[in-house]
Protein: Methylthioribose-1-phosphate isomerase
Amino acid sequence: MKIEGRDSRSVWIEPDGWSVGIFDQRRLPWAIERLVLRTVEDAAVAIADMATRGAPLIGAVAAYGLALGLRADPGDSALEQAYARLLRTRPTAVNLRWALDRMRRRVARLAPDERAAVAYAQAAIICDEDVSMNHAIGQAGLPLIEAIAARKGGAPVNILTHCNAGWLATVAWGTATAPLYLAQQAGIAIHVWVDETRPRNQGALTALELTQHGVPHSYIVDNAGGLLMQRGEVDMVIVGTDRVTANGDVCNKIGTYLKALAARAHDVPFFVALPDGTYDPATATGADVEIEDRAGDEVAFMNGADTEGQPITVALTRSATINPAFDITPASLVTAYITAKGVVSDAGELADLSG
Structure:
């Protein structure tokens, strides 16, 4: 994908052949800065502090974090300590555990001196699979956009998305954005409504991505979506997800549930882009998901940049705050799930993803 006019993934191996590079998403979109991770603790802090974010990317960075840990100490105790340290960074996104479990299974039975090399190779496989999967999600979702474009006689298809489910939240392509990029490549006129997604303003990352790729879009406040649907200015909603439970409930960035309710009220189809590793058949319903409560300062203060690009922090309130990072959208509000294996409208069919 493109950033600063260059092709890039959102996680990579540095030229030294072992340290791991990521974009510092705390500085985006005001400044494009890269971080180098050299230890398992570096990876854990990057995930916990949201220097890197998005369920699929968290899993990929955690996989490389485990490899970094094994490079320093490949022993059994160090393996378990690295696994535990990375696992406790973010409780809600299931990709984190999925990737770490996969890594641990792959190396646990190996001789210690073999573990680091195999761990790096396995992390690279996880990244390559993510790229392929997201492209397949794009191919599955493209006909949905094509059908609306045909009904509109070629007029732009207006698509609303929430949070950042783009390539900065994955390794490449993104989940919710993959169909958008493929639609653009196919010559279909689209326009994207990009929710700001307070309090971390991840929508600004989506806007940055779309700008880099020349996709027409408008950055909107979170509460504008309902009015736009009421006016008939939204043709479809596509969101990503941090976890989908066995019954099809969707755990995604706070505010997703309200968009789903508005979509249902105005007969706007509501789609969820769902990679395999984000489906969680072991959790029965959304009520069983631990919702991450983050620091209230994220709500009470806003980080940004001044007109010259220098970082600034603005205090918004001295009142008490709460900051749940995610909400649960019931499966009954989901029109369909866009997966790498196709579009699935019945939550019961999602079990195929765990095969």
Summary: The CA atoms of residues 44 and 86 lie 5 Å apart. The chain has two domains: 2-129, 132-354. The chain has a mean pLDDT of 95. The chain has ten helices and 18 strands.
